[in-house]
Amino acid sequence: MADVGAVKAHTGIRGRLWLLLGVLLSIALFASAAVFVERQRQAALAADARVAHTLVVLQRALEFDTALLRMELAHRGYLVAGDQTFIATRDGYDADAASQLARLRQLTSDNPEQQQRLDRIGELLEDRRARMRETTAAVAADGLDAGRRLLRTQGDGSILPLRAELEALRDDEHQLLRERNAAAAAGGTRLRWAAYIAPALGLLVLFIAGRALLGQLAAGERLRRDLLRANAMQQAMLDGAGYLIIGTDHAGIVSLFNRAASEALGYRPEEVIGKLPARTFHDPGELAERAAELGGDPFATVRSGDSGVRSDDREWTYVRRDGSRFPVQLSVAGLRDADGELLGFIGMAQDITTRKAGEREVRELNQQLQTTVQELESFSYSVSHDLRAPLRHIDGYARMLVEDIGDGLAPEPQRFLQAIGTASRRMGQLIDDLLALSRLGRKPLAKQPVDMAALAREAWGEIVTDGVPADALKLGDLPAVAGDPALLRQVWLNLLGNAAKYSRDRGEDRRVEVNARRVGDRVHFTVADNGVGFDMRYADKLFGVFQRLHAQDQFEGTGVGLAIVHRIVVRHGGKVWADAEPGAGARFHFELPEAEGR
């Protein structure tokens, strides 16, 4: 009996040990399940936060794009109308764009790729600012025509590369949003499985498991409230987003309808969710046209995605409840579960009415600019054919009168005829200079390495034929530059001609010096003379058309030569300026890009 008792006692102890081990195992299993549920809850909250963050980034990118378009529109409005108020408007939108860019940098500080793209966007924005400042300076110096010719509507220096980089940034954020939504859906699936497993594990224990189950139910209630709060937060973020966000089930019935969509389309969420298909808000004609392209389904591109992340991004027309229409940029993505089964769609739409209006205004402004250029070309043609012929007749008849009856005329009529001839020839020269100035804006640059020393010597050779001493020029070492030889030759003719003309009172002591030095990848040229000079208070007038600082009877000229120099140098990407003192000569400076490989 003792042995039996010992065996029973041993069996009882062993049973209690197994029971204790079972209870401990059940507790361990339950605890593991609870930890897993908590982790999934935290993951769901984190996924919602990441989705909200991405939406904020997209909103900031949209605001930045809007500021850019408004800045560009104000700049072009200034070039069309010449109204200075456009400059203040443009600079205000420029400041707004800079502020939005800074916010984007802060929001994407954890994304190195987006930071690099934002650095590129910042560089392009600064380049666009520099171009606008250059254009404004050209308008101030030479008038609206000069600024219009500097306008770039595409390519480097225009707004297009900047917007292309911004579009790439937004595409990446849209992709990130789809990935995070997919991750949130997967987390929800795991959370549901955890909710099923936890009660099953609770059945493995008796009294302890029951109490644990009650505790888990309480934890589940807390989790439900947390999820409700998270959903409320997510809904608040969706309602605060600047996009119209509409979600549907796999059949296309609306399951999500944020506040922006409600306000834009005129429907209350309770009238739409679970009741209306999303196609209600689309223009029927556009749906039919798109369906014909894709074989019967306007969103077949999204449905056919093998991985469930393919999207369709295009312009659509939305129809409000009152029947009115407005354009949107709609991005639609399919939502699929882990098995690839289509769960529904999520669409993010942006009202682009303002953008379309801006684009339309830009097109109209471009058309106006084109019309203005055509009118200017027509005027140039008229000048060259309709005005020059009468001037030649006037000059010719005046010469004939002098030759035929000049000896029989009194000195006063002879002087009148000579004045007529001189004035007509001067007017003809002025017309030639104006035509040359107008052709500069239309003639394409034939850039190549240019020997500036050879060009300067050639130009001086022509000037010497007008009675200028050949040894009056001192030519330094002039590096080659990248440019159009024919146009740069005109620069030397005008600058050296002016130096020779305004220093002629020096007689045998007349001196003209030309020097150059390298400044980085550019060459700085200086043409100096010891002539009459000018007052620096009037230096801002030097490079304007018809701007003269000396009387016509003192120094001949049309007042166009320096304007031609300025336009040629600016077209080559350079700059030109001058300094002088009355009676102590003048110095004209210009910079041009150095020839490659020199």
UniProtKB/TrEMBL annotation:
Instruction: Using the UniProt record, name the top-level EC class of this enzyme in a single word.
Output: transferase
Q: Where is the PAS domain?
A: 230-275
The regions listed as transmembrane in this protein's record are 17-37, 193-214
Q: Which GO biological process annotations does it have? A: osmosensory signaling via phosphorelay pathway
The UniProt entry, under InterPro entries, shows:
BphY/WalK/GraS-like (IPR050351), CHASE3 (IPR007891), HATPase_C_sf (IPR036890), HATPase_dom (IPR003594), His_kinase_dom (IPR005467), HisK_dim/P_dom (IPR003661), HisK_dim/P_sf (IPR036097), PAC (IPR001610)
| Claim: Transferase is one of the keywords in the record | yes
Query: Which GO cellular component terms, listed alphabetically, does the Swiss-Prot or TrEMBL entry include?
Result: plasma membrane
Q: What is its EC number?
A: 2.7.13.3
Q: Which Pfam families match?
A: CHASE3, HATPase_c, HisKA, PAS_9
The residues covered by the Histidine kinase domain are: 382-596
Which reaction does this enzyme catalyse, per its entry? ATP + protein L-histidine = ADP + protein N-phospho-L-histidine
UniProt domain PAC: residue ranges:
312-364
Q: Which UniProt keywords apply?
A: Kinase, Membrane, Phosphoprotein, Transferase, Transmembrane, Transmembrane helix
SUPFAM superfamilies in the record = ATPase domain of HSP90 chaperone/DNA topoisomerase II/histidine kinase (SSF55874), Homodimeric domain of signal transducing histidine kinase (SSF47384), PYP-like sensor domain (PAS domain) (SSF55785)
Name the source's superkingdom: Bacteria
What NCBIfam families does UniProt report for this protein, alphabetically?
A: sensory_box (TIGR00229)
* Name of the molecule in the record: histidine kinase
This protein's species is Arenimonas composti TR7-09 = DSM 18010
